[in-house]
Design brief:
This protein is an alpha+beta fold. Among the domains are: 128 residues, Bira Bifunctional Protein, Domain 2 (BirA Bifunctional Protein, domain 2), CATH 3.30.930.10; 51 residues, no CATH class. The protein is built from 15 helices and twelve strands. The strands form two sheets. It has a nine-stranded mixed β-sheet with strand order 1-5-6-12-11-10-7-9-8, with helices on both faces. A three-stranded antiparallel β-sheet has the order 2-4-3. The relative contact order is 0.17.
């Protein structure tokens, strides 16, 4: 209770600073239709959000963040370019008791601008860096777009590429798939047994043996899935050099300028990442122009892979004590605007700060 006045004061300070930077204040409903979030992220979102049923509006979620409703509103009626800011509570379900709050204030800033995306990245990061200056925080940046480009450039089947891209935000599952697709791990026993059964008879025979249907999948869906499993089993493994480059990317941690040098060095071996690396270089130049020392700024290629699943380019975070969640975080989410824009899209980047954590740090300084 003693933190609440300090938290509110910090939130108002940050909110005012975002408005001074040209952002228009916006609000979002506390209860959001669950369908949109489930369509975006699948059933996994249920583990992180509070879900309820409304007799008239159907399944609803307590607001897990602001970005999705802000993007929806912008794509529906927003002018361009645009800057928005917001202040309000968000709700995140926690699996274990501990110091991670399930309800907390969030203050955010979002930029929608077609002209110079990398400059917008630098604008958002520099603004956050300035607002958090003097606090004991570790700033880290990353770029999920480089990893996605590397996956798209692999010499493997479209189905395997899609599986890897779908699980980029689930690091353990992604690594397990990459190990299997590269021939470094055996096919799971249950999957191997299923493949043997499929090889012994047609899908129609197996469906007939299984008895009555339970669930929503039609026989055609089951047959198509069986055909996909058989096709995947016959796919050649990802070549060892290409797999090694992807493993290298996953583990890349270095100061940003050194990371750029490393990425330039491997680009001839993985040409698909060249456009993303060029954007990374442009962003570093824009950050330097705003006074950020990119020779010491931390870069991690895997940063952001456990966040909400809409980041697809530049990402950043500011961390305090090791057992705390991020005090501030954000990134680029161009693809999300296309999904929610129903055919229209615009480059977009933004971030959020948790004023409660900032207030705690200020009290400890």
């Amino acid at each position: 209770m003693t933190q609440k006045p300090a938290t509110r004061a910090e939130a108002e300070r940050l909110f005012a600073a975002f408005q001074a930077a040209g952002a228009v204040p916006v609000e979002a409903d506390l209860l959001l239709p669950a369908e949109t979030l489930l369509d975006l992220y699948g059933e996994d979102i249920r583990a992180r959000a509070y879900v309820t049923n409304d007799p008239l509006r159907g399944e609803m979620m307590l607001r897990p963040d602001f970005t999705v409703p802000v993007v929806q509103a912008h794509m529906r009626e927003g002018a361009e370019p645009a800057r928005y800011c917001y202040l309000g509570e968000v709700f995140r379900k926690q699996e274990h008791l501990g110091n991670r709050a399930s309800e907390y204030l969030q203050v955010g800033f979002e930029v929608f601008d077609r002209e110079a995306p990398e400059a917008a990245d630098a604008e958002v990061f520099a603004l956050f860096s300035g607002l958090l200056a003097g606090l004991p925080l570790r700033a880290t940046t990353g770029d999920i777009g480089i990893l996605m480009a590397a996956v798209r450039g692999l010499d493997t089947t479209p189905r395997r590429k899609a599986a890897l891209l779908r699980h980029i935000w689930r690091p353990k599952r992604f690594r397990a798939l990459l190990d299997r697709f590269a021939g470094r791990a055996p096919v799971p026993v249950a999957r191997q047994q299923l493949l043997e059964r499929l090889a012994a008879g047609s899908p129609a025979d197996l469906i007939a043996q299984a008895g009555s249907f339970i669930g929503l999948r039609a026989p055609e869906d089951i047959a198509a899935r069986a055909a996909a499993l058989i096709e995947d089993a016959g796919a050649a493994p990802i070549a060892a050099p290409a797999a090694a480059l992807l493993y290298d990317l996953l583990s890349l941690q270095a100061p940003a300028q050194a990371a750029l040098t490393h990425l330039r060095g491997i680009t001839p071996l993985l040409p698909a990442i060249e456009p993303a690396v060029d954007r990374f270089a442009t962003r570093l130049a824009a950050l330097t122009a705003r006074g950020i020392d990119t020779a010491t700024l931390a870069f991690e290629a895997s940063l952001g892979r456990t966040s909400m699943e809409y980041y697809d380019g530049f990402v950043f975070s500011f961390h305090g004590p090791a057992d705390w969640p991020a005090v501030a975080s954000g990134g680029r989410y161009d693809a999300l605007t296309a999904v929610l824009g129903q055919g229209r899209s615009i480059p977009a980047v933004g971030g959020v700060i948790r004023p409660g954590l900032v207030a705690q740090l200020r009290g400890a300084v």
